[in-house]
Specification:
transmembrane helix; 2 domains; alpha+beta; Aminopeptidase; globular; 341 residues; 31% strand; metal-binding
Amino acid sequence: MTRPSVTIGGRTVLPGTRATVHLPVPDTFLRQGSVMPVHVFHGRRQGPSLFVCAAIHGDELNGVEIIRRLLRLKRLDRLAGTLYAIPIVNIYGFMANTRYLPDRRDLNRFFPGREGGSLASELASVFFENVVRHCDYGIDLHTGSNHRRNLPHIRGDMEDPTVLAMAEAFGAPLALDLSGMEGSLRAAAKENGVRVLLFEAGEPLRFDEFSIRAGLRGITSVLEALDMLPAGKRRRGRVPLQIATDRTWCRAPASGLFRASAKLGQHVARGEVLGTIYDPFGGRSTDLTAPQDGVIIGDQSLASVYKGDAVMHIARFDAPRQAQASVDEYSEMVMDARMAR
């Protein structure tokens, strides 16, 4: 039985073909026409529909490169089901090298959006109505924000068996059990029966090769687990998924210049010194200590800090040393040249 075609933005995509569809979005003040490109791969064989999106926050670049590499994979010619790839959702923030929209709104607080609303609502509606509503699953790619770096990890509703299975297939070593804030893409998608996994890795406005390889590896692994792609010739190594039981930000007790002694992925004990905040004029220094046991999953990349700044993000696990071991093993697997192909 022949699969039906799919229609997006008024364009029909036949089974066994791919197309790039340009969805009209609200214009910039230059009024020269603005669009959101969507790459559609509509397989010959029956299967689910999945979207992969990046740059909902315009300064988050790793996901853009992950999708660029995904689009070049010859394996997609054997796709079952339908894949929608959206390299840049927030084109306005992307052009301005900023997280937000021109009106300073965070796009990821306005889903599912609506026509006739703010710029954020209009843009969210275009993406949600044309892509998300037509999918069974989604993978949303992010980095840290505001000069912060994230260790590659998964966020999602881990109490949902489908999301948990996707997280385990993705292969990242750590996960946070978070259902998504009101107005977020994940929360709006879930209300419409679409299961979405969020991948966090790296920092804004920078490419990070480890994060990019981890993201591409994870996406193709999920596609294989959903039977959308045949398994690769080389079997990929796996590490047990460690789900955090709690998390907290370690905040600067004083202002100054921070030099870290602990690193991303490291297991730390409560009270352990994570780094030192120095007086740039040679005065008294202050240690930053861990408020709880756990693994560092995020940190600030700027040296300058103000008192109260969130400097390090620590996640608590039932087996923190095993979590660090999983991170170390995963890092070696991802950066192995043979596994990166």
